[in-house]
Amino acid sequence: MHSALAEIDEAFGDAPRPPNDALLHERCMDDSDIVRLYPVEHWRELPDELVESEYAALSFLSPEGFRHFIPAYMGFTLRHLGSGAAAVDSTIWSLAPIFYEDPGIGEFVVSKLSALTHEQRAAVIAFLEAVRELGDNYLTEQAGKALAWWRD
After folding, report:
1. How far apart are CA 79 and CA 92, in angstroms?
2. Dist. CA 8–CA 16, nearest whole Å
3. Which residue, 20, 59, 14, 15, is CA-closest to 36?
4. What's the pLDDT score for residue 1?
5. Can you list the pairs that 39-42 forms with residues at least 24 positions away whose Cβ atoms lie under 8 Å?
């Protein structure tokens, strides 16, 4: 887990934070699920309580907003694997379209990943591998599905 956290920190450490008016995905009309992220200047300052309460935010962030905030969610997930927090599932599901039957939703998920660099993509894979290794049976299965998509 510690090596995955370090890789996330290294890959996303200087990911630029878009201005608030660029955080909402262009296909989304309502910012109510991301508005509590507006005062957060850097993903490292996002408290666990906010990650947990704003688990749906990942669904509404622009690719650049997603790139900036996903490391906080991945770190939360690794530190709270057995918590049952909705943010754990939403983080894993935000990282691969394989969880959605609707092709439009799958395409939407992929669009959010478009801003990730090669190093950030490697950190996502390290994160999913750590979840697969450390999680319970359900999380191991979910992370395995996401990894299969990343490796195709």
Report:
1. 14
2. 15
3. 20
4. 77
5. 40/69, 41/17, 42/17
CA distances to 73, 83, 88 from 127, rounded to whole Å, are 11, 17, 12
What would the two tokens of residue 23 be? 């955080």
- Please, what sign has the CA dihedral across residues 83, 88, 89, 92? negative
Long-range contacts of 86-89 (CB under 8 A, 24+ apart): 86/52, 86/55, 87/51, 87/52, 87/54, 87/55, 88/139, 89/55, 89/142
pTM: 0.96
Torsion, Cα 69 70 73 75, to 10 degrees, reads: -110
Mean pLDDT, all residues of the chain: 96
Express each pLDDT in 73-131 by its tens digit: 999 999 999 999 999 999 999 999 999 999 999 999 999 999 999 999 999 999 999 99
Task: Answer yes or no: are the C-beta atoms of 1 and 51 closer than 8 Å.
Answer: no
